[in-house]
Amino acid sequence: MNSEKQVGLAPVINQFSRVLVLGSMPGRISLKKKEYYAHPRNDFWKIIFSLFGNEPPKGYQKKIEISLARGIGLWDVLKTCKRKGSLDTEIREGELNNFDEFFPSYPNLRAIVFNGKKAGNLFQKNQTYLPGNIKCFFLPSTSPAHTIRIEEKIKAWEKIKIFLE
C-alpha cells in the first residue's frame, strides 16, 4: 500500500474552551467518518467522560457538545500528511496547522494536552509561537496502538481537570 495524502479535520473548539487536546492526525476511520477518535477501540471518549464520572453518550454530536460545555476543545497538530494506514509511525511530509493565527482567537485556553508523544514532538519541533499563559504537557496516547491499561491512561489524563475548574 502506498502512502496517501490525508487531510485532517477542522478544530472543535469554542470561546469557552480552556483545554485543547491535540492529536497528531486522525486515523483512517476518524477521517472517513469525519469524527475525532472514531475508532471503536480508541479510549479517548471513555477517558474524557470517566474524568467526570460518566459513560460516553451515544452519538458523536452529543460527545462534542458535552466536551465543549466542559471546556475541552479538539484539534490536531497536522493539517495534512502522507501516511499508510493510521499509525503515527507512518506519518511523512506533515504540514502543521496554523497555530499562529489560531491561538489569538481563543484567549481562554489554559492548557494544550498532547494525545501521545508524536503529537507533542511534532508540535514542539515545528511550532514557534505559543502564548505564555498556556501550559503544555504530554499524556499517554488514547490509541489502541498504545497498550498501557486504560486505568493508567485515566490516571494520567486526570491532570486536565485542574484547568477545567
Describe how the helices and strands are arranged.
Elements: E1 4-7, E2 19-23, H1 28-33, H2 44-50, H3 60-70, E3 72-76, E4 78-83, E5 92-96, H4 99-102, E6 111-115, H5 117-126, E7 135-139, H6 150-157, H7 161-164
Number of E-type strands: 7
Global structural class: alpha/beta
Q: List the secondary-structure elements in sequence, H or E.
A: EEHHHEEEHEHEHH
Count of the separate structural domains: 1
Strand neighbour order, sheet with most strands: 3-2-6-7
In the CATH hierarchy, the third-tier topology is known as: Uracil-DNA Glycosylase, subunit E
CATH superfamily: Uracil-DNA glycosylase-like domain
Please state the second-level CATH architecture: 3-Layer(aba) Sandwich
The main sheet comes to:
4 strands, parallel
Unreliable stretches? none
**Rg for CA atoms:** 15 Å
Taken as a percent bin, the fraction of beta residues is 15-25%
Overall form: globular
* End-to-end distance: 46 Å
Number of helices: 7
What is the typical, i.e. mean, pLDDT?
A: 91
CATH class: Alpha Beta
Which bin fits the share of residues in helices? 25-40%
How is this structure best described in words?
With 165 residues, this protein is an alpha/beta fold. The chain has one domain: Uracil-DNA glycosylase-like domain (Uracil-DNA Glycosylase, subunit E), CATH 3.40.470. Helix content is 30%, strand content 21%. The protein is built from 7 helices and 7 strands. The protein has helices at 28-33, 44-50, 60-70, 99-102, 117-126, 150-157, 161-164, and strands at 4-7, 19-23, 72-76, 78-83, 92-96, 111-115, 135-139. The chain is globular and about 45 Å long. The model has no long low-confidence stretch (mean pLDDT 91).
